[in-house]
Amino acid sequence: MQHKVKVTVIDKKLYPELQAQFCADPAAGACPCYNVGDEFIFERYGAADDFWHIGQNTLRQTAAQPEAVAGGSAFPHCSEAWDAISRYIYAGLQGGSIMRGWMNDERVMIACCSDGTRPVIFKIERMDYQVLHIDGIACEKCRDRIREALSGIAGVTSVVFRDGFTEVYVQHQVKEDALKAAVEGCGAYTVLGVE
């Protein structure tokens, strides 16, 4: 089983009375680094190790200019946010419980940055998946056939084809035999390995 972590900005707050009273720029305004709806995906598989690059290039979705968002290609995550969320990201990437007993799903945590005048609220979620190495995929119809077969297995939530391997996202670990049978039952495909 492999793991990714999705971080989503779910809210931003602003306390202008605190900024007016305590900040060098009393009209600093809301956080410029993040936008509600920004989505980041952290990976640690193959050559990818987004955690050790402080999340640079993890931005997957934004309503703003991608170059102006933390986690985009121009700069990594804000240090105030990184300090607050990095421990949960690391736990999720290792397959651990992010917040057992506090959240109703131990794979999820709601956290905010430490800027008390303009905090950003994040949803951090561990995404579990199994990697399949499949031989014989030649076209999009092959992918559609395999995706449909894998999606019919209990616990499979989605299937993503990557360059050289397939990611099968799951709610819980699925037996290798079930994954192999689903793929190989579609035709002339061979599962070379499951991780």
From TrEMBL:
GO terms for molecular function: metal ion binding. Residues 131-187 form the HMA domain. Pfam families: HMA. InterPro entries: CHP04076, HMA_dom, HMA_dom_sf. NCBIfam families: TIGR04076 family protein. This is TIGR04076 family protein. It comes from Candidatus Eisenbergiella merdavium.
